[in-house]
Amino acid sequence: MDIGFLREDYNPPLLRRKDLSETPFPTFKTWFEHAIASKLPEPNAMTLTTTNLEGQPSARMVLLKEWTEEHFTFFTNYQSGKATQMEQSPKVCLLLAWPVIYRQIIIQGTVAKAPEEVSHAYFQTRPRKSQIAAWASDQSRPIDSREALEKRFKEVEDKFAKQENVPLPPHWGGYHVKPQRIKFWQGGKNRLHDCFEYRLESDGSWDLQRLCP
Ligand SMILES: Cc1cc2nc3c(=O)[nH]c(=O)nc-3n(C[C@H](O)[C@H](O)[C@H](O)COP(=O)(O)O)c2cc1C
Fold first, then answer.
1. In angstroms, rounded to a whole number, what is the distance separating the alpha carbons of residues 83 and 62?
2. 52 in contact with ligand 1, CB cutoff 6 A
3. Average pLDDT, the chain
4. Domain range spanning residue 193?
5. Is the CB of 81 under 6 A from ligand 1?
6. Residue partners of 83: CB distance under 8 A and separation at least 6
7. 139 Cα nearest atom in ligand 1
8. Tell me, what CATH number does 89's domain have?
9. Is the distance from CB of 210 to CB of 17 less than 8 angstroms?
10. Are 154 and 76 in contact (CB under 8 A)?
11. What are the pLDDT digits (tens) for 16-72?
12. What is the spatial distance between Cα 213 and Cα 196, in angstroms, rounded to a whole number?
């Protein structure tokens, strides 16, 4: 299949230094709001990259559920493939890719488990059936069939049927990614894109540099 003809011209307004804040967070907020306003499906979906002990990277999507000036938060299974890798190597990369608006944000940082109360508070906001699914799924492990998975789901549903609240599974919760570098990239005309990188300095300030695209 020839896909060489797939070529899109990017022509958004240029991104200038003056458009960017001193620290990355106001810019992140502005860009995120723009992604929401652009009605992108799942604007908070991001690629999480981890590495194993041999340096082999793995990538998958997770949902960004919160951010502060300290960290970016997502939730998952603490016994999953990604969790094992993050224990082995806490250096991770997050990629928010929004090609429809010609933008991406790349965050490099260090990951740590979120405090249990954060996981607990978020878990309580999930629909009940999603809570049941978190109990029923041994994420990343083999299972014989779809039927076996649905049987497990039903068993958990029955187990908690008389309880008003489904408890937080011990194997499920949040991670905080503390950013050290954040790159804002915007596609430009003639592939002359705009790219700026914030780097966290040892004194806690952020350095901002334009990079060649
Ligand atoms: C749009 C999208 C959002 C997802 N969000 C999450 C999430 O927030 N947490 C999660 O554990 N898995 C999420 N997944 C599933 C993961 O991509 C992945 O398949 C799963 O977590 C197992 O990954 P692992 O084996 O690398 O640990 C999402 C998948 C997609 C396509």
1. 12
2. no
3. 97
4. 17-126+170-211
5. yes
6. 76, 77
7. 22
8. 2.30.110.10
9. yes
10. no
11. 999 999 999 999 999 999 999 999 999 999 999 999 999 999 999 999 999 999 999
12. 9
Task: Determine whether the shortest distance from the Cβ of 78 to ligand 1 is under 6 A.
Answer: no
Of ligand 1's atoms, which has the minimum distance to the CA of residue 81? Answer: 27
Total domains in the fold of the chain = 1
Catalytic: 191? yes
Q: Quick check: is 104 in a domain?
A: yes
3-class secondary structure, 133 = helix
Tell the residue nearest (CA) to atom 3 of ligand 1: 62
Say which residues have a Cβ less than 8 Å from residue 65's Cβ, sequence separation at least 6.
Answer: 44, 73, 74, 75, 122, 174
> Is 37 inside any structural domain?
yes
Evaluate: CB of 207 within 6 angstroms of ligand 1.
no
Taking the centre of ligand 1 as the mean of its atom positions, its distance from the CA of residue 169, in whole angstroms, is: 17
User: Is the CB of residue 112 below 6 angstroms from any atom belonging to ligand 1?
Assistant: no
Which positions of the chain have pLDDT values less than 50?
Answer: none
Question: Which pLDDT score is estimated for 9?
Answer: 87
